[in-house]
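## tool: complex_structure
## caller: assistant
## args:
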Amino acid sequence: MNNYRLNQQIQFIVEIDKLKTVLRQTMLTDGSRRENSGEHSWHLAMMTMILAEYAPSEVDLFHAMKMVLIHDLVEIDAGDTFCFDIQNNKSKAQREAAAAKRLFGILPENQGKELHLLWEEFEARETPSAKFAAALDRIQPMLNNKATKGGTWQLYNITHEQVMKRMAPVEEGAPQLWNLVQETIEECIAAGYLQPPKSTTTTQG
Amino acid sequence: MNNYRLNQQIQFIVEIDKLKTVLRQTMLTDGSRRENSGEHSWHLAMMTMILAEYAPSEVDLFHAMKMVLIHDLVEIDAGDTFCFDIQNNKSKAQREAAAAKRLFGILPENQGKELHLLWEEFEARETPSAKFAAALDRIQPMLNNKATKGGTWQLYNITHEQVMKRMAPVEEGAPQLWNLVQETIEECIAAGYLQPPKSTTTTQG
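## result:
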């Protein structure tokens, strides 16, 4: 191609096809296989549309949608780091920062910088749009875990405490959806998909 | 859940997970497997972002992005119809209309209607946003076919004439990207990924 700028953009578009081969721990709702990060990102974008009315008024929905679309791109180099994997989460930030530099570096400079900032905004979880995007990123695997009778919670013996810690950002990022989370977790406990919280009563003596 | 409206929306979000199991003919760029319609829709949404500057000024980019996100949902019931499959394309409209009715019917009425209209807008390809969305939907498989040395063109002996007919909506929907299409097709012919156009010279006698 003669157009250097467009050529860089097309290179990037071809490169990110690889996100479709990055597997997450979450299963599809039919339990047939693990979900990949490309289709996961699509699902979050759909949730941004469908659940838009529950976003706090400060949320810029187009901006939040762009954020969920790109939030996992760094996994092309860094791989998906399972949220409950303590060891690999220690090196996650460094691995992902290097990935972001390479990947967004394929784009024309101004556009690469724009996407890099958008990804950093998602990671920092400080703006209302980033908090809302993060909330959706927590809710989607919860729904898939419910649909697969506990899914990764069962597979890795994840505790109620771990799940609630993971879900916590929903309360701040999408307070109108917090009740949904609490009810869904209760339903999962009642159905035996997740172990109930351990009694907080301490033993005496 | 006590909230009936939210319950319908969550049902829809869980239902559309199925789009991840609908396989298209297109291969991933690494040739490892066929692409599914969920990850394909994500790729188009990414292209809407990355190629935004080439959209005609009348295009509403957020609207176009929503359109590419939902454009294939009907395939959950109707399956993916290969663009070069003449027989199955005859029944495509009817199968997809029934699918749209069922799927969008899961949502609260006003939201279901909104999405149904959005899908019909994409299908009708009359508005600038729908034409731009359709153009991206043509360019993405072309890029994947190039990356896989001809991909489905080779597999099904698709002719240059068929490909150019398929690509034609790009010229109207994204005229600034038409040159890219022409050059890419020429590169594919030069590399042997696509048969050159048949000579238009008629035999004498």
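## assistant note: The longest helix of chain A spans residues 128-147. Chain A touches chain B through 50 residues (CB under 8 Å). Handing back to user.
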